Amino acid sequence: MSCDNCEVQYHDYYSENIYTWCTNCGNYGISAALKRALVATSIPPHKVLLAFDIGCNGNGADKIGGYRFHGLHGRVLPFAAGAALANHNLKVVASAGDGATLSEGINHLVHSVRNNYNITFILHNNGNYGLTTGQASQTTKKGEHMNTSPEGVITDSMNVARFVMELGGSFVARTFSGDVHQMSHIFEAAINHKGFAFVEVLQSCPTYNKATPHEWYMERIYDTITIPNYDNSNRDWAREIATDMENKIATGILYHDKSKLDYYSQLPQRQDIQTTLVDEVRKTDVKDLVASFR
Asked: Is the pTM value of this prediction over 0.85?
């Protein structure tokens, strides 16, 4: 569908390709929630770019309609940032796993948060490198026995939501792959946010991560809407409730700064220009430039 004024339907994002994730993988819920959020925000497929990293999340790149990009391991964020800067009329949603994001791509995460690029980033946090059969990642629980850690992981796991807050993130949310309803609303809010919207999805991995199955999360997660008078514009409060990842795990929009300007909006040279960068691309004769080096 290419009609800008047509009502967006769930089937607009339909793909004939068959899902290949393990039975009960959290990716099923994430994929369904993303489609729901895109429909709820009335974004037609030709108005959004869905960028996927390598890993189990990347197996969803051809399971949804629209413009899709399947990138290199840990490198989806610079691509997504470049696309958003080149065409700020296009919604950009990027997805990646905890292994790629917090290892090969952690520098890209740092600068995406710092620069506040106008993209939505969904971190699939299943606590391991699932696609390569269960190696420990930066979010694997300490003591867990993994393929490359047969005697148990010896380092503390990383609290990525707190990490993003400490970097000055303008939108930090956490949700659970088993709660499609909450995920849908959080994805919708993230897409509507102007700036870098970071959403951590606590994702069950039934095949390789036995420490945090679906039931483990169900016994521990709670929604911030149950906290009396919770103010998600209070960064200190948000950091406090985001700390516990073992007993009572907070989900919801943990922190939201609506006043922080995104990167593109701060560029002085673009303030009075209505066109996008892709509109300004044109052929240029470089014959004289090349000749000057002879």
From this structure: yes
